Amino acid sequence: MTDGQGRVIDYLRISVTDRCNLRCVYCMPPEGVAWTPHGEILSYEEILRLCRLFAQLGVRKVRLTGGEPLARKGLPALVSGIHAVDGIEEIALTTNGVGLARVLPELLEGGLTAVNLSLDTLDRTQYAAITRRDALGEALAGLSAALAVPGLRVKLNCVPMGRNDDQLVPLAALAKDSPLAVRFIELMPIGLGGSLPRRTQSEVLSRLEAAFGPAQPCPQGGGFGPAQGSYVTFPGFRGRVGFISAMSHPFCSGCNRVRLTATGFLKTCLQYEYGADLRSLLRSGAGDAAIQEAIREAVHRKPVRHHFNAAGREASDERHNMNQIGG
Ligand code: SAM
Ligand code: SF4
After folding, report:
1. pTM of whole model > 0.90?
2. Where are the beta strands (DSSP E) in the chain?
3. Domain, as residue range, for 86
4. 110-130, pLDDT tens digit by residue?
5. Counting atoms of ligand 1 from 1, which one is nearest the CA of 327?
6. How far away, in angstroms, is 325 Cα from ligand 1 center?
7. Which of 18, 94, 158, 250 is positioned for an S-S bond with 116, CB 3.0–4.6 A?
8. CATH code for position 197
9. Nearest CA to ligand 1 atom 10
């Protein structure tokens, strides 16, 4: 499927829940948010039907995210259901890693092919301050479990936000001895993310070069689309370091993805509310052809680019927070 700009859309990110066991400062207020009632969240059957329809339209990769996707019961069953969908080649998970070690074997049995684990610090006190939960040990257990699986592609995602400046080098150093991709994601002005200091790609890179020596370009090799970021490596590293810099190095011209919120809204751009309410269609008894037409039409109107950097972001989506969109 292509959008109105001719971009091939082959990647669907699905938020399976808006609930989470952490309260990261850039994502959720300390008191939490009102969780969406269960009846408003897409059922696994509804998600699987949409996966089949998207796959017929050319989607090849699905990522499960949240909220915290592991907070939803029965996730391995959803993974194996998606694995059985004709055309889906990759099923990835984005998780904070808490509880991952326990459920990972079942997820792998279901057909999971890749894990992105979000971790902003290796310091227990700082972790508790950033996530408002004392769960670093569990997150690290999740990371070790994922790294121990032969062939599983594992990436670590860190959002530099000022207060973890001292952790950028220790986090990148994890890619020294293991074939891990450590990625630094520029904070985006979505929800609470707009109120924290951002560290740009070049600021982070300067810190890393001061510690590890000159960065060397690194072919990123395979994968799905330019929003995977640009990668470098450093002398003596087995792994690589990546940058997802939507603010300082926008990658909209090569964007290949759309997002499905936990309530079944198809979001065609991270910034805007443009898209389609697929849940209403599903629940009104619409046939496959009508749903695919709505998907095609929404994808055709996918915005050309985000304008997060522009003054007056009037058209921004004020309805969905990061825990509903899934990053
Ligand atoms: N709970 C899971 C996790 O944390 O990996 C999945 C959902 S979380 C919303 C997905 C990703 O979005 C995380 O890596 C998180 O750091 C990132 N994120 C959340 N708010 C952000 C923001 N304002 N700017 C950039 N990244 C953000
Ligand atoms: Fe939860 Fe992920 Fe948001 Fe943190 S970033 S509060 S782990 S959904």
Report:
1. yes
2. 11-15, 61-65, 90-95, 114-118, 153-158, 181-185, 216-217, 230-233, 240-244, 257-260, 265-267, 275-277
3. 11-325
4. 999 999 999 999 999 999 999
5. 12
6. 9
7. 94
8. 3.20.20.70
9. 327
